[in-house]
Amino acid sequence: MTERALRLGTRRSRLAMAQSGQVAEAVQELTGRSVELVEITTYGDTSREHLAQIGGTGVFVAALREALARDEVDFAVHSLKDLPTAQPAELTLAAVPVREDPRDALVARDGLTFAELPEGARVGTGSPRRMAQLNAYARSHGMTIRTVPIRGNVDTRIGYVHKGELDAVVLAAAGLNRVGRSDEVTDFLSVDTILPAPGQGALAIECAAHNASLAAALAELDDPYTRAAVTAERSLLAALEAGCSAPVGALADLLADGQIVKEMRLRGVVGTTDGSSLVQLSTTGPVPETETQAMALGRELAAEMLAKGAAGLMGERAL
Ligand SMILES: NCc1[nH]cc(CCC(=O)O)c1CC(=O)O
């Protein structure tokens, strides 16, 4: 008996197709079953409103999840940073593969780096997190930049620079890599300066909770360190009671002594979009071995950030 093809639900954007295509190949290799891509349009793809105005989290994710719930597809691939922090009981986060480059990247005219941007440079980003940190960095380095809210897919955003409408745009390095446009990057923004969104650069592979055999097969693609890191980052986000459009950056990484992994570090930042105030803190702990431990690391840092006034800085977000 030949088993039917596995149906992978995907958004139609170039980025979604690229990441779904890569996962489809890996799953095909793993299971020996063919994988068919099923295209699904989400509200986040069709709306021209600014992401912060569409409101709530998960605009890119909801339609894929509905298709999973209706059994129209067997599994779905999401950008982990687009996933709401609450996991629905009927779905399993079957795998979090090894994370790609988590950094934000600058695509600027004339090959400019961020430090080389001229006085008053117009920098496009729709992300309050990026605005807050870019403006804070500029302030502390005596630069003046103007952040300009934009949205759209990778090609649209890069287009603003090529058409001369903006001096630069900021995008996730991982997204540019996945669609084969990393050659456009003129500067990679260090995570020491600009913390990425929780989960940035990581993928989430989700299937129905009742489909235990598929979940077990997909789990082969899981990377425990990436999963622990993104779990801590998302736990921080949830404990701050912030969503994916909030000005929150977070990154967990491993601290090693030579080859020996010693601890996990979690860094977090919250700020006002004008960059006038930031709360930026870091904590370290033993490398989490369970989801509970990873979540505790995130909650611990959130409590410290809230004690330093983080909540007051998130109030202005437009929802
Ligand atoms: N918010 C949209 C989004 N969701 C995931 C990525 C790509 C990178 C990733 O997987 O983190 C992007 C584009 C961007 O932020 O530039």
- Number of strand elements: 13
Through-space gap between termini: 52 Å
Tell the overall outline. Answer: globular
Spatial strand order of the main sheet: 2-1-3-10-4
Summarize the structure.
It comes from Streptomyces atriruber. With 319 residues, the protein is an alpha/beta fold. The protein has helices spanning 14-31, 43-46, 51-54, 62-69, 128-140, 154-162, 173-178, 212-218, 224-239, 291-307, 310-314, and strands at 6-10, 35-39, 75-79, 91-95, 104-108, 121-124, 145-148, 168-172, 187-189, 203-208, 248-257, 260-271, 278-286.
Describe the structure.
With about 325 residues, the chain is of the alpha/beta class. The chain folds into three domains: about 5-95 and about 200-220, Periplasmic binding protein-like II (D-Maltodextrin-Binding Protein, domain 2, 3-Layer(aba) Sandwich), CATH 3.40.190.10; about 105-190, Periplasmic binding protein-like II (D-Maltodextrin-Binding Protein, domain 2); about 230-315, Double Stranded RNA Binding Domain (2-Layer Sandwich). Helices cover about 35% and strands about 25% of the residues. The strands form three sheets. It has a five-stranded mixed sheet with strand order 2-1-3-10-4, with helices on both faces. A hairpin with a 6-residue loop joins strand 12 and strand 13 (about 280-285). The ligand NCc1[nH]cc(CCC(=O)O)c1CC(=O)O binds next to strand 8 and helix 7.
